[in-house]
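Quick question, first post here. What does this chain look like in 3D?
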Amino acid sequence: MDFFEQQERARRTTRWLVLWYALAAASVVASFCAIAAPFQPPLQVYMAIAAIVGGCILGVSAYRIWQLSEGGEAVAQLLGARYVDPWKCSPPERRLLNVVEEMAIASGIAVPPVYLLERETAINALVAGHTPHQALIIVTHGAVQQLSREELQGVMGHEFSHILNGDMALNLRLVGILAGLTWFSVQGEKLVYRAAWQAKGVPGQESSPDAISALLGGLVAFIGFPGSFAADAIKAAISRQREFLADAASVQFTRNPGAIAGALDSILALRAPTAVLAVHSEQLSHMFFALAVSRWWSFPTHPPIEERIRRVYPRFPRDDYRATRHGIRREVAVLDDAGNVVTPREPARQLVQHVDFAARLIAELPQPLREALRQPEGAEAAMFALAGQANRLTPHVQSLARSHMLTLADLAVPAIKGQKQQERDRFLADLAALAVLGRRVTLRELVLLTLLRQRLREGAGQPISTQFQKVDEVAADAHVVVSLVALAAGSGVQAAFEKGAAVLKLGWRSPLAAEQLTGATIGGALERLRHLAPFAKPGVLKACVETAAADGVFRIAEAELIRMVAATLDCPLPPGFAALDPKSWSA
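> Answer (accepted):
Ran it through. Tokens below.
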């Protein structure tokens, strides 16, 4: 799964989307003009109708795009989702948070905050945001209560793949652009429903205002139907294949096809609904894990569940899985020595489970430290302890392996990010002051500061503007970064640098001297590389990985620098690197 390749595909899809949008908007305008045709009005009337209808479509789309500029928080607000506070959550919600944390650390991105649709009994979920490190996850109450931990892992793996594939930004653009197309039919339906509720239990009269508004609403909805029809067709065309890709990527994350297949099959076995009743769920239907809105005339945004199971796990043992998971047995079950339900033919489920290193890392954290990371004050104290300040968490932080530093930072970000920007800026300033107090900034402190700045700075999560189209335009900055990684390679600095330089082919012969790599130089280089065009970024990241892997051994310092570069470019880690167990890194 290539993050940058998927991002480029998303951009190409967006360009086609503009064309489809123009054609659909023209059909809506033509629909309104067709109503006026029997009256044979002059050309000026047609032009006025076209201007009014086209203006409404463009205006509504522009407003929705502006409304969603805040990213995932705007989507959570539209759906009425509640933030899951780690300090005030139920055991099932705590289980969900643990799964999300494990998946985030394993995939090399910031731990996303989790929101709950607490009034939704359906099994569903979605992820929203503009950039990978500023995403958030929204899950229905039904999914939290009815899915097992393993099934939640499968669903979260599916959602995390949408983050890595660049689907989030595309989906938000889709919501904004299509809002104008559906506006007329939505307003018409609102008039009909409002009239129906007002007239409920009240004898109607043929000439009553309620009846007139209902007829007017029905007419507007009918005329605007081409826009809704086209919007559904566009969403279905874009989302269906990406759902298959996300299912397959979930298996890559969990290394267990039974997780995602089990989650999908549980929807069938429990006969659980997937339809979400929240306001605006129709506009966001293509973003959900499963079919959130279903109408007889619309195009389904998701493939059938049976087909998804067949694609992701062709030999899924449905009968045995249901016998163990839901107690639905078609034959006599037998218990093995471990108390697991098996059939005479084969085990009801895989007994050998893959233990993800991310879950192990989290489990190794001291409990006081783990609890402290869930609140802003404790999360900040943990980061200060990493930077050398003595406080109540210092003994717990010092007892951890060096490779745990980035895990602590990932777990601390959600709590700190929950504060106002003024408080975030204060924390970053205090941390920077502590790092330079009486001495030079160490490599470890540089990585920590850069990671936290990228994820907590003002405007974090917003689309990064492109100022440079090619790496050649920022060759000096790329030289700084590759040299920095090479200097962490130990004795083979020159060989490591040459390996990375060969990727970019910019004519470099040797790395920069350590004296040239000051904090200001490195910070400036990273900031300019951040504004590199998305399709040009993979070369820089690949050069860093090749530099670090030149001698066949990944060192902790090299791994930390790669994480820093990935955070700056606002992309996840390369899959092969993200899969490495930090315990395998050399000191």
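The chain has 25 helices and six strands.
Residues 329-355 have pLDDT under 50 and may be disordered.
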